[in-house]
Write a structure and sequence with these properties.
alpha/beta, Muramoyl-pentapeptide Carboxypeptidase, domain 1, Lysozyme-like, 6 strands, 9% strand
């Protein structure tokens, strides 16, 4: 195991290049592209932009935030070398694919790795048929939910960020990091709805797998999961969802 030298702000040596390379990788993984771009990866000087980036990484990993690259900071920087887990396979039907209406407005939000997931059911019928007929039935139900939300409830769009049908296919609702209309007071969180009435039916295995993989793909699997009934007097998302997902 190699031993890295301590790198202090203002230092100029070859180790600085490694610090910058690893810091940039972390910043990009954290969605901090602007901080990453500010760092000159070819300069051997450990200047202000790189120090700022390192301090951000230190803060995220809860080590001393001083900009000094000592043993503990080298350890967390080295995490960037570890192979990333494969991206979960999730079949997502985009808004274009299901012919979504144009939203009246879009408010962007930011989801951290600890962002809560708000779990719902649509309390509707479920798709029927097989093959292409099943897919068309799924799309029709998603469109009907959007129509109800926009025309009757006067929402800007369908309420949820994503919806999961019994086949395991995921339908893009408002999408990733868009404020929803799913949970009063918590609409900035990730809202996922299962299509159907889960006080009567049970989740399919495909839905459970899709739900878990979707949360991983969205980067929110480290956050808590809350049934709608946690924040509102409702049976949503149905007793079966709560039992099957352990909510």
């Amino acid at each position: 195991m190699s031993v890295h030298p301590v790198v202090n702000p203002g230092d100029k040596n070859k180790s600085v290049l490694e610090v910058k390379k690893l810091t940039i990788a972390h910043l990009n993984n954290f969605g901090q592209g602007d901080l990453a771009k500010a760092i000159n990866p070819k300069s051997t000087t450990y200047g202000p932009a790189a120090v700022k980036g390192v301090r951000y990484v230190q803060r995220r990993y809860k080590v001393t935030v001083d900009g000094v690259v000592g043993p503990n900071t080298w350890k967390v920087l080295e995490y960037a070398r570890k192979p990333k887990p494969p991206v979960p396979v999730v079949v997502i039907m985009t808004r274009l694919q299901w012919a979504a209406r144009t939203p009246r407005g879009v408010t962007k939000v930011h989801w951290s790795s600890k962002q809560p997931t708000r779990v719902h059911h649509t309390d509707t019928g479920v798709p029927t048929g097989s093959g292409k007929a099943l897919v068309e039935s799924e799309k029709e139900i998603i469109r009907s939910i959007q129509k109800f939300h926009m025309d009757t409830r006067k929402y800007n769009d369908i309420a949820y960020n994503f919806l999961i049908v019994p086949s395991g296919r995921v339908y893009e609702g408002r999408g990733k990091e868009v404020e929803g209309a799913h949970t009063l007071g918590h609409n900035e969180d990730c809202g996922i709805a299962f299509v159907g009435d889960y006080s009567k039916q049970k989740l399919t295995r495909a839905q459970i797998v899709a739900y878990k993989n979707l949360r991983r793909k969205l980067g929110v699997s480290g956050g808590p999961e809350h049934p709608h009934s946690d924040t509102y007097s409702t049976s949503c998302p149905g007793s079966n969802v709560k039992t099957q997902l352990g909510l």
